[in-house]
Amino acid sequence: MSRSTRWTIAVLILVAAIVVALWRQLDTGSAPDAAVAGGPAVAREHRDADTPEALAGPRAEAALEPCPAPGVGPSSSGPAPLRGVTVECAADGRRVDVARAVAGRPTVLNLWAYWCGPCADELPAMAEYQRRVGDDVQVLTVHQDENETAGLLRLAELGVHLPTLQDGRRLVAAALRVPNVMPATVLLRADGSVAEVLPRPFATADEIAAAVNAGLT
């Protein structure tokens, strides 16, 4: 074997060794690097820590009104953007078929999260609006963060006892095509169809009443 042939073989072996080393480094490092980079996480309705036992105290403190009982559901041929969406009732943890819960009367859906400052300012106004209108319109809030405990404690702090859906996966917002802002309010007709999406905060019950009257009449 000539010297040039031996050098060629040595170079090829070296190159192969480098390629194998690089491949191993990439293979073992790819998963941790992706985790550190903050790849897309799987959205959850609530945290693992939010067990029924852990939520018992915050639920008692919040003292929320029960979520709406199923009304006369929308027909299979009618508009029903929420059909098939089920989430948890924050008051007691039972599953709620949202389309059936809002069927039968006009509904104001208020989308919020515990960490949202404007939401905290708006929620008491929503409660006051509900007190004024009684059974003519129902106000249903939707907590859009997986930290259910924090949502319950925020409502307790605000003294707001409106029926609330726990929707950490934001299924309701996705079904209704609500912009990714909070707070946001959706006006639903009695048949479950969307009358208006209002991606802005309200300061008073009077402002809410004016928006509902304009959107649902």
From TrEMBL:
User: Where does the UniProt entry say this protein principally localizes?
Assistant: other
Q: Does the keyword Transmembrane apply?
A: yes
Instruction: Check the record and name the SUPFAM superfamilies matching this protein.
Output: Thioredoxin-like
Q: Where in the cell is it found?
A: Cell envelope
- Residues forming the Thioredoxin domain are 76-217
Stretches of Low complexity bias are at: 31-42
Does Membrane appear among the keywords?
yes
One Pfam family here:
Redoxin
Q: Where is this region: Disordered?
A: 31-52
Transmembrane ranges, per UniProt, are 7-26
Q: Which UniProt keywords are given for this protein, alphabetically ordered?
A: Cytochrome c-type biogenesis, Disulfide bond, Membrane, Redox-active center, Signal-anchor, Transmembrane, Transmembrane helix
Tell me what this protein is called: TlpA family protein disulfide reductase
Source species of the chain: Mycolicibacterium arenosum
